């Protein structure tokens, strides 16, 4: 099971690949839309990549509640395994 | 405040083509007689009758960042590369023109075919949940125009003429109309195409429209030559920045040429085959010359559409012969670039403008043995090497499957 740090690093890699976010900027308090300029279509790509990397599917109604990197990290932590 | 005039000028040029990654390198390669045509070596091509292609000289990833590359179809990527060059050339960002007065007209023949086909593969292999959320904005035919609109911050309107291989020229005509009607103060116009993939290749080959001279790529595109046997599919984009002459003068812009006139007609003859005497083509050429306030005698040079297909080239030669006469210097640059479909009219207009600037008409490559058609025989088609000449007006014509005929006229700045 990946640690919190590993989840943050993995999310950072996904954000860099999908949206060109510098991994160091992908810190828990950052808002996807307001701070990292990630649009709604890119969020769909991120959800797919999260499923591939962590085996955690994020349904659309849950995805809508994920506003920050920290929200995504908690969701992955809670739902993995 | 001065009264706006209807005179429209070209203040920016951009291109990425099989001959070069920008306008200067493309023009240099064209004048040097270099060919952009090569044979495909991928495994899939083995059973294909037509295996030649004119690929980009410079990949768009050399110019665009990785995230933009991910979100844009290749046809959008090359459109943005060409448009950004034109926009820089026109110093558009420093023009002071409000975004609400900047428009884009960017055409494509096929659009985002690569995205459509790639995502269909993903759908078949991995299911609907794996299809990219960017599929639709990447494959829609207005996608290149929209991407260019974002790149230059256009808010006066973004338009996408779709008239097969006349799309690029139609974009120029549409841009002229927008400026004449006062609907915008600056318009980025152009055309784009990037559909080198087995399906379009198979489709064009099934029409018997493509050259099968597979063993001799550089000599396969042979407009007006007896031995021509079809076109070579090319990829790339070209763009022009248009604005009214008084506005360009007021901001001290460099002016490449005057966009003096444009016109379009439809054949009303056949969905695909050109009218054998180029009747609709001749009407478009004549109307464009009149729209420019000129007469046929004024047109010193024609950059012909001439794709190297047996029917198309003779129909066009007849149209040029009938509508302009035999004094004009004709060239067919697809002999080196291949056929960029929806980008062709924009690229060849860029070439016509550079020919006007340099007073130099590029040669038609591979024209060894003139077709017996009387119009081809009568025309002065430049071959061998580029020809110096004195002329003040040039014309570019473009035709597309569907019976679309477009002509645009440029005069000296």
Automatic annotation (TrEMBL), chain A:
Superkingdom per UniProt: Bacteria
PROSITE patterns: CARRIER
Post-translational modifications reported in the UniProt record: 4'-phosphopantetheine is transferred from CoA to a specific serine of apo-ACP by AcpS. This modification is essential for activity because fatty acids are bound in thioester linkage to the sulfhydryl of the prosthetic group.
Domain Carrier: 5-80
Pfam families: PP-binding
Example GO biological process: lipid A biosynthetic process
Subcellular location: Cytoplasm
Pathway involvement of the protein, from the record: Lipid metabolism; fatty acid biosynthesis
A single GO cellular-component term on record: cytosol
Keywords on record: Cytoplasm, Fatty acid biosynthesis, Fatty acid metabolism, Lipid biosynthesis, Lipid metabolism, Phosphopantetheine, Phosphoprotein
Molecular function terms from GO: acyl binding; acyl carrier activity
Coiled coil: none
O-(pantetheine 4'-phosphoryl)serine PTM positions: 40
Gene3D superfamilies: ACP-like
Similarity-based family: Belongs to the acyl carrier protein (ACP) family.
PANTHER family listed in its UniProt record: ACYL CARRIER PROTEIN, CARRIER DOMAIN-CONTAINING PROTEIN
NCBIfam families: PRK00982.1-1 (NF002147), PRK00982.1-2 (NF002148)
Function comment: Carrier of the growing fatty acid chain in fatty acid biosynthesis.
Protein name: Acyl carrier protein
Organism name: Modestobacter muralis
TrEMBL record, chain B:
PROSITE patterns: KS3_2 (PS52004)
Cross-referenced SMART domains: PKS_KS
One annotated GO molecular function: 3-oxoacyl-[acyl-carrier-protein] synthase activity
Keyword terms of this UniProt record: Transferase
A cellular component annotation (GO) from this entry: cytosol
Database matches in InterPro entries: Beta-ketoacyl_synthase (IPR000794), Ketoacyl_synth_C (IPR014031), Ketoacyl_synth_N (IPR014030), PKS_Beta-ketoAc_synthase_dom (IPR020841), Thiolase-like (IPR016039)
Domain Ketosynthase family 3 (KS3): 5-412
Keyword Lipid metabolism: no
A GO BP annotation: fatty acid biosynthetic process
Matches recorded under SUPFAM superfamilies: Thiolase-like
Family assignment from sequence similarity: Belongs to the thiolase-like superfamily. Beta-ketoacyl-ACP synthases family.
Protein name: Beta-ketoacyl-[acyl-carrier-protein] synthase family protein
Source species of the chain: Modestobacter muralis
């Amino acid at each position: 099971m990946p640690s919190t740090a590993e989840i943050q690093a993995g999310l950072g890699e996904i954000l860099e690949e999908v949206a060109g976010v510098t991994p160091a900027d992908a810190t828990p308090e950052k808002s996807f839309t307001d701070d990292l300029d990630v649009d709604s279509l890119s969020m769909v790509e991120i959800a797919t990549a999260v499923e591939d990397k962590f085996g955690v599917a994020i349904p659309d109604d849950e995805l809508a509640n994920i506003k920050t990197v920290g929200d995504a990290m908690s969701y992955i932590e809670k739902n993995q395994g | 405040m001065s009264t706006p005039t209807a005179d429209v000028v070209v203040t920016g040029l951009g291109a990425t083509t099989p001959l070069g990654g920008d306008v200067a390198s493309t023009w240099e390669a064209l004048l040097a007689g270099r060919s952009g045509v090569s044979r495909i070596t991928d495994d899939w091509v083995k059973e294909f009758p037509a295996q030649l292609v004119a690929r980009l000289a410079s990949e768009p990833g050399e110019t665009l960042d990785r995230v933009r590359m991910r979100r844009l179809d290749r046809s959008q990527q090359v459109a943005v590369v060409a448009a950004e060059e034109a926009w820089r050339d026109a110093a558009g960002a420093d023009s002071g023109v409000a975004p609400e007065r900047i428009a884009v007209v960017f055409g494509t023949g096929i659009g985002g075919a690569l995205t459509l086909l790639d995502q269909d593969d993903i759908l078949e292999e991995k299911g609907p949940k794996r299809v990219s959320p960017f599929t639709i904005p990447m494959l829609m035919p207005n996608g290149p125009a929209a991407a260019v609109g974002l790149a230059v911050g256009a808010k006066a309107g973004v338009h996408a003429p779709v008239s097969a291989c006349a799309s690029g020229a139609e974009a120029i005509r549409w841009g002229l109309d927008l400026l004449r009607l006062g609907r915008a103060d600056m318009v980025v116009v152009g055309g784009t195409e990037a559909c080198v993939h087995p399906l379009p290749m198979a489709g064009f080959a099934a029409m018997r429209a493509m050259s099968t001279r597979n063993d001799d790529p550089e000599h396969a595109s042979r407009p007006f030559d007896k031995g021509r046997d079809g076109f070579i599919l090319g990829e790339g984009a070209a763009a022009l920045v248009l604005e009214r002459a008084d506005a360009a003068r007021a901001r001290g812009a460099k002016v490449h040429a005057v966009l003096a006139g444009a016109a379009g007609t439809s054949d009303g003859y056949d969905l695909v085959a050109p009218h054998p005497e180029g009747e609709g083509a001749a009407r478009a050429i004549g109307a464009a010359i009149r729209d420019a306030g000129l007469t046929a005698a004024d047109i010193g040079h024609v950059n012909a559409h001439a794709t190297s297909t047996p029917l198309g080239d003779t129909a066009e030669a007849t149209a040029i012969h009938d509508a302009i006469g035999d004094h004009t210097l004709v060239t067919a640059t697809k002999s080196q670039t291949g056929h960029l479909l929806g980008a062709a009219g924009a690229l060849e207009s860029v070439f016509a403008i550079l020919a006007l600037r340099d007073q130099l008409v590029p040669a038609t490559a591979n024209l060894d043995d003139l077709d017996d058609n009387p119009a081809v025989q009568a025309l002065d088609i430049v071959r061998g090497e580029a020809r110096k000449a004195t002329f003040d007006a040039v014309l570019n014509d473009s035709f597309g499957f569907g019976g679309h005929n477009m002509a645009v006229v440029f005069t000296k700045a």
